[in-house]
User: Fold 3-hydroxybutyryl-CoA dehydratase from Tepidamorphus gemmatus.
Amino acid sequence: MRPPQTGFGYHFEDLSVGMSETLMRTVMADDVVGFAKLSGDNNPVHLSDHFAARTPFRERIAHGLYTASLISAVLGTRLPGPGAIYVSQTINFRAPVRIGDVVVARVEVAELDPQKRRARLNCECSVDAKTVLDGEAVVLVPSRAG
Assistant:
């Protein structure tokens, strides 16, 4: 399912409960290093093989918010798409994401509030069909009327 050819993603009026979109991304070491530089989160569990080997994970893991940012990418580029504005996000971290994992980020429209032009979306990231992150987002969606 792709946004209509408006260049601005879906309008609120185009949405319906049950619509969904996904994005797939392989987590690369350069992504983790880049996210650390961008965010300032230099926790060695993300950056040091030696340190991470002594943790319960036994190897470097991606930042939880890197994984969550894939949800943001779906919301901002696919569903609802460009013009959508975050109002809130809940996140539950269920399992670590490792370098080399293929993450599937999925959002699904769960509820629509026409009065406020808000959509509530269920959000999930999975690796090998195992949920690593879930939660929900509320976004303000542009109306066709303006």
